[in-house]
DNA sequence: AACTCGGTCAACCGCCGGGTC
DNA sequence: GGACCCGGCGGTTGACCGAGT
């Protein structure tokens, strides 16, 4: 059953607000407040505006102490970290930024920060999914790819960039909730592209997922405790990233990048041909060898935890607080929800946020 | 000068959840 | 308990503007 509109669209004015309308609204609210009823407010003032429009105008523009534009680097940091943590909950993010509105933060993210962080190459990758889909033999394939939330993918990518990709890969609880078809495709892709690791790390196909995860987690945990971060070479990481990229791009694709801080990654085809050749050209033996070495507690060339963080301007100033910045999806996603990205309550968020112990005051 | 293109941002749309009757 | 109302929210749209050709 549809909901009745809050006002008659034919009788209300739409579009940009005039200075006179602004003055009327501001003067009234300054004197009498909103009266707790935005719907009735425009009639009281004599404005031919929808109550929602009045509310939006007040909150986003007329309200005292509103800041527009000129986001500081610190604000960038906050937005980045919170977006990775909780996604597109702009009102929650804006609440951490005095004088900023959710609309402002949302616009700023969509028009600037996202590009700054994710770079342009991914955009081309996304556009290719929606425009061409050689594997597609029907509507479902195409629509499913498109249905994969950009927000989820962005967070996935940011997380891959900022976190240990292996632990992410190995912990389904950290994955975004996908359409069943997308999930199937993801798992297929991971199996095809990453089976050597899976087989090596989890040799028994009879083992349950939980066991597999536990097995590997023990290995990782022991190393992480010593090193602060498990070590893998770039080629290994590329392999994993390629696996994930494979979800969205059926032929060749561009590995994850970090925008201005893009890693020197190569364009890899589905057939495993790497152009130009580098270590990833033979991902299987290389990775297996590396994993073997990893098991033997040897360290490889993957950038150190701190170095990795340092690649991202967004977090440069958060050194020292990174340890508290672990992906806490479990805090959110364990609750039953139809949309695991959105399942966290504000209270949960606040608790999590305290856990983060970020380098800024909240 | 005219046109195109891309970026920005204010405003709108529609859904959701809480409160009230 | 359920229908309805309203505020809040995130996603999207479209007007505007400046840079480039």
Automatic annotation (TrEMBL):
Gene Ontology MF terms in the entry: DNA binding
Annotated InterPro entries: Homeodomain-like_sf, Myb_dom, SANT/Myb
Domain HTH myb-type: 9-62, 63-117
SUPFAM superfamilies: Homeodomain-like
Keywords assigned by UniProt, alphabetized: DNA-binding, Nucleus, Repeat, Transcription, Transcription regulation
One GO CC annotation: nucleus
Residue ranges of the region described as Disordered: 124-146
Pfam family of the protein (one): Myb_DNA-binding
Domain Myb-like residue range list: 9-62, 63-113
PANTHER family attached to this UniProt entry: OS09G0431300 PROTEIN, TRANSCRIPTION FACTOR MYB36
This protein's name: Uncharacterized protein
Organism the protein comes from: Salix viminalis (Common osier)
